[in-house]
Amino acid sequence: MSPGIRVLSVDDDPQLRELTATVLERRNDQIDVTTAANGRDALAVFDGASDGADRPIDCVVSDYELPGMDGLELFAAIRERDPAVPFVLFTGTAPDEIASEAISAGVTDYLRKGSGTAQYTVLANRIENAVAKRRAERARRESERQLERYRALVENDRILELVPTALFTLDADAVINWCNDEFADPFVEGRTELIGTPFPDLIDRGYYDGQVTTKYIEEVRDLLSSTTDRERAKYQVRFQSPDGEERIHDVHTRLLPLENGEFTGTVHAIRDVTRRRRYRRELERQNERLSEFASLVSHDLRNPLNVAQGHLDFIAEGADDRHVEKLQRSLARIEELIDGLLQLARQGKAIGDEERFSLADTAQAAWATVDTGDARLEIETDPMLYGDETRVRSLLENLFRNAVEHGSTSPDSRPRQDAVEHGGDDADRLTVTVGPLEREPQSAGSGDRPDGFYVEDTGPGLPADRESLFEFGHTTAAGGTGFGLAIVEGIAEAHGWTVAACDGDDGGARFEFRDITVPTGGTTSARST
After folding, report:
1. 4-aspartylphosphate modification sites (predicted)?
2. 435 pLDDT band (50/70/90 cuts)?
3. Could you tell me if residue 392 is left (phi over 0), alpha (psi between -120 and 50 degrees) or otherwise beta?
4. Of 124, 145, 482, 485, which alpha carbon lies 20 to 30 A from 59's?
5. Confidence band (pLDDT; 50, 70, 90) for 364?
6. Where are the alpha helices (DSSP H) in 448-522?
7. pLDDT for the residue 506
8. What pLDDT does 168 receive?
């Protein structure tokens, strides 16, 4: 949609002011008329709009005979403020009296009032033409300024050669018309040979495959489209170096300034991400080996653990209860350590299939799998999340277990008088709440972004050393593994979320999860940490 036209109409006759505004706005619904009764009021309106209080004035329409200053004096004052804004003299004064003076002064147009409303159609057309001409001229000047800045930058090779990024430009016919040494370095051809080479020739020589052309055309067409406000495109291409090594390049593309509205070419910046891709694949392989190792160790430990547990159950009836209880606690401890080891090994792997799921349903399922005693769960929010539901349930299980079994990571020296250990009424029962977070002002991003959620308990709260809460092996509870919160952080990061620990409203522990994005389309996929 083309921008509207704001007109300032100046006339000392209130009936003519109202008539002018009404007819112009009816002739063209893009015209919005503001009126003034004299030159002083007109300048106040013009200055206020120019200072940003309102949208700037696009055209001034003024009578000649005005109190205080005439139309040409107003024109001179307006020109001092904006030398290019269109100014139409619309007056009932005889042409031979002021026409020559108006033309000499440089007014944009001159039109004499008449009876009826036909002249307002002419006035509307002249306003439209004058504003369109000014906007086109302004756009042309801006394009020239951008082009001059680009030319000055490109011509100054001493600056661009210091940039450790491969840069090159293509003209409208896809011919390389400039490049720096960083771009030319991997080619057999030198820089001077590459300049003037049609880019398709590089495809024919085996440096790139034919898909590069298709991708380039698609991205340039999108950048040129009036339906998008994108200023740059980013995509990946494969480059075959002369030594036979395949490299992966991130390409950033922008349009060169248009000339008279015509496409003139593109400028490109290239980053070699081959090492980063290899490093990521190596990390994935290491994580797989870690998981395999953890599974092997847990398997080898579980077998003798199961044998020991079986024999212990067999001899339990005839043995000293005190000794049997110690053995049972030790075996249970070993099993906890094995489970924690497996979860920690998995947290570095790619999470599984992602899908939409209900936070409330997942929290209920997690609560059902934890020995919660008389503690109670309250759910005050039910957003739809997007991720690996199984891993998120494990995250919640660890938080619930941390709250109920380990006193919310507080030291044992801080007794917890809750119903889990001591019974009592509902007021004394430990309560774990899953609730919504308020949106942070700086939150931004694509898709449907929930505000986030928190898990809070009414226990004794967090310890003094909060910086170590999420560290592997850190625990303040006797018998704790120190795995739980490390697992929570790992699962959150695998989903791209952030987690923070803070004090709850009632003094307990509170864990907040933010940066949660739910795509509007939500297709199933996998994500790497």
Report:
1. 63
2. very high
3. alpha
4. 145
5. very high
6. 484-494
7. 82
8. 92
Q: What is the Cα–Cα distance from 500 to 340, expressed in whole angstroms?
A: 21
Long-range contacts of 488-491 (CB under 8 A, 24+ apart): 488/395, 488/398, 488/399, 490/344, 490/347, 490/348, 490/529, 491/347, 491/351, 491/391, 491/392, 491/394, 491/395
DSSP annotation of 448: B
The string of pLDDT tens digits covering residues 43-86 is 999 988 776 667 889 999 999 989 999 999 999 999 999 998 99
Nearest to 86 by CA among 112, 111, 53, 114: 111
| DSSP string over 155-222 | H-HHHHTTSSSEEEEEETTSBEEEE-HHHHTTSSS-HHHHTT-BHHHHHHTTSS-THHHHHHHHHHHH
Decide: helix, strand or coil at residue 67.
coil
User: What residue type is 252 in one-letter code?
Assistant: H
Amino acid at 273: V
527, 350 in Cβ contact below 8 A?
yes
Chain mean pLDDT for the chain: 79
Query: E-assigned strands of 11-137?
Result: 31-36, 59-62, 87-91, 109-112
Tell me the pairing of strands 5-10 and 31-36.
parallel
Residue with tokens 């297709």: 523
What integer pLDDT is reported at residue 442 of this predicted model? 47
Q: What's the full length of the chain, in residues?
A: 529
List Cα–Cα distances, 194 to 165, 177, 191, 324, in angstroms: 17, 8, 5, 82
- Listed in sequence order, the DSSP H helices in 316-371 are 321-346, 359-368
